## 1
Amino acid sequence: MSDTRTSTGDDGLVALVTGASSGIGEATARLLARDHGARLVLVARREERLRALADELGGATVVAADLTDADAPARVAEAVKHEHGRLDLLVNNAGAAWRGTFEESGWDNVKRHMEINFDAVVRLTEALLPLLRSSAPSAIVNVSSTAGRVGRAGSGSYSASKFALAGWSDSLHLEERTNGVHVGLVLPGFAATEGFPQRELVDRAATRWIVSTPEKVAEAVLDAGLNGKAERYVPRAYGLAAALRVVAPGLVRRAMGGRAETFAPKTKH
């Protein structure tokens, strides 16, 4: 694992995107480069994919790292400080999911979800917060999930980590807004990505319409980060499920039943 950079110039937004080697992270990086001329810091485990993307976008800082490693936050922060000296936007997108009921997978599954979907995000944000404060006005966007507001059978561990991320994001915004750091939250529903192909939904005409794309989620990420939105559901209609969860929890439980397990995330990304 190494830190490298190809120059993109001295001006422009400095943005860091985790999980940038594919899916939502890659789409977000492309959008930032195309529409905002951003100087990018790309973070993911797959260095060759990051380098290829950096070359395609005309250069970027590449940090190949597993964010659950003890030294990863410090390495990423050092790369940002050394190469750019500031950070205007942090997009915490990297995550993973494994399907399984609590009876089947137990605490171990909860633990590994929390390590990557929550703990790694908190640790990286802690390492970068001084730079975000000194660069204010700046923003953090945490990519949670609609499953972070509405639990589904077979993905309780994933939901737990995303619920935690959503709650922490709300509190962090209240704490950091006086420092000029906005914290936005993006809650995608089903989105077809390399890690989450959603074949069960895409292959059925009756459910295909509820599947979004990485590009649409990337637009929501920029809306939450650059336009100061508190939170964005993708598609927006998923926000209705979250609202119903508050006002009519029994109805939502009956509606969800056990069927959601069929469509629960299956793989790491």
## 2
Amino acid sequence: MRVRLRLHYHKLTFLTLALLLAFVATGSAQQTPDPKPEQKPGQKTEKKKPGYTLTVKTRPILNLSLKAEKASMAEVAHDLSTRLNVPVFLGPQRQKETISIEFSELTLEPALQLMSPTVYVDYELDTGSQNPPKPLGIFFYDQNQGEPPSSAVVSGANQTLLVEGNTEDGVDTDTEADKKKEDEQPLRVHYENYLLTVKAKKQPLPVVLVKIGEEIGIPVDIQNENLDPIDVDISKLPVEDVVRQLSPHLKYYYRADLTRADKRALRLVLAEPAKTTQGP
């Protein structure tokens, strides 16, 4: 009887000990954290992605896509400047703001209007190219900040020519005789409501351009002094359409105010014709 009790006691002790060891082993396995992957030499830590996605496509036409959620306006503007290779200027308040917006494949101006309540864009129009006007600078300004300086991105020397003629060009006349006399003048330029009228009979192109500059109120840079006379009769067209008809050697600079939906001329340049290289 004693032998049986001892055997039973020893079996119970061994079973208890085995259960205790199994419990300790299980607890240790649960508390041991997974080992961290070793960073290989030269491997860079992944940077935090910005809070926006900007896509710029140039074909078939320039268009922008932007998805942003409380993204820094300064960072988005810097990225946009890099993608377009165009300087982007921010007003003091806009530099501190965040932007939350989403649009897809919009052309430049509608996209910019969604990004800021006040936007200006300065352009260069090359009359010898079939390409659309090229943006030279984008201004995301604060409300009531005012317009950027005319020379913010467009600057250069200008040459002044003496233009002889009636100082009353473009003034309304009363009599039929006055109207007939006005019609007989060799050069008439009139600018009203953003529309330009140019009528010239055998007038040198530089003289016509300087007269246009005087009427609009912009500097004119004459780099090509070709005095071949021209004949034109253009009535009430936007300035960019007029300069396209005058010569393939013009560069017209203007500013688009996207907030007010209007345009303002900045400068007109008569450039030297491109030199062609002759073969051997």
## 3
Amino acid sequence: MDQVLSQAEIDALLGGISDGVIETEAPEQAAAPAEVKKEVKSVDFIRYTKGKKEKLPALEFIYDRFSKSFRSALSLFMEKEIEVNVKPIQYVEYAEFIKTLPLPTNMNIVVTENLKGFFIIIFDAKMIFSVLETIFGSASISAPKIEGREFTKIEFNVIKKLIDLVSLEMEKAWAPVYSIRCKYSRSEINPNYITMVAPEENVSLCEFSIEIGDITSWMKVCMPYGVLETIKSYLISTPSREDMEMREKWFANLRQRTMEVPIEIRAVLGKKRMPIQEFMKLVEDNIIMVDRFVNDPIDVAIFEKMKFKGRMGIYKGNKAIKIEDTVR
């Protein structure tokens, strides 16, 4: 009972607490939450920007034309009805693209001379063997196992013929948009041997589904986007059929009208420079010595400009000039 506080002591204690004279025990602080570790990843903004490519409608138009013409050409080459269908164009990194290719594969580099670039044609092995069996007279087309072996010399010869066929039809398909000339460069069976394209570079990839009998195979056309950017102004709009027909008619009319333009052609047998006094003294039977011998070539001028070299002769009883060389 001696430990019980009186009313006065209780009032003094409460007053000291309220006035701050007596320090009270600090309340326990809540435990700080555990620090969450954040993972930081670097972002390559240049690579991200490269991945967002502008669509090129004219390129889709080109590949659509190519699929139709290549179907006819391949059917004629194999003497068999072939189906060729084009799939939508994709823009992917070259490193990601080559991961999808089987080994061995058939990659063919075709150089576009006036475009200052190249594209890669990849054939499915089943397509090559289907063409082989058809060419050598097989009654039925099978799907052979091709994994784990390389192509033979005969097979590469067939591939070369297919490349020539693709190159010719590709030139025709590009003609309404931009004139290109295709030239076969080389073939590779390992994608890693083609170092002309950087792994991080974006490429335009178009796949063609090819049906030969009961066998469905494919062909892919891979083109670096950097090459297409050099002619992007030609590829951002699709030429309409009306524009193409009008352009063809315009060129045909221009060619016809050009062929009807008259030109002045003059064969210069020789020249002589003399003073006026000597010229005024000339009379009948005078002989003028020119700067040419009888057997020297004759200059043929068009509108006073020398364009050809020729020889004097007789044609159907008339004096004529035979063109032998062009003056450049």
